[in-house]
Design a protein that fits this description.
With about 60 residues, this protein is mostly helical. The chain has one domain. The protein contains three helices and no strands. The longest helix is centred in the first third of the chain and has 15 residues. The protein is flat and about 50 Å long. About 0% of the residues are buried. It comes from Streptomyces azureus. This is YbdD/YjiX family protein. InterPro entries: Sel_put.
């Protein structure tokens, strides 16, 4: 029963994007060990700004 609950929770976190920040922190620590890791709020701001600045991938 516990394994099934863990699997459901993992799946829900993946669907909602909750693990995105965790993976970012791991990469950041690996590539920039002396730099401070942004908080979750700072990370969300960076991602929002990045998404807003990207050109749409449409042809029209």
């Amino acid at each position: 029963m516990r394994k099934m609950l863990d699997a459901v929770l993992w799946y829900a976190r993946e669907l909602t994007g909750e693990t995105e920040y965790d993976r970012y922190c791991e990469r950041h620590r690996r590539h920039h060990p002396h730099a401070p890791v942004p908080t979750r709020r700072e990370y969300q701001r960076m991602r929002t700004t990045q998404r807003e600045c990207e050109a749409p991938g449409r042809c029209c």
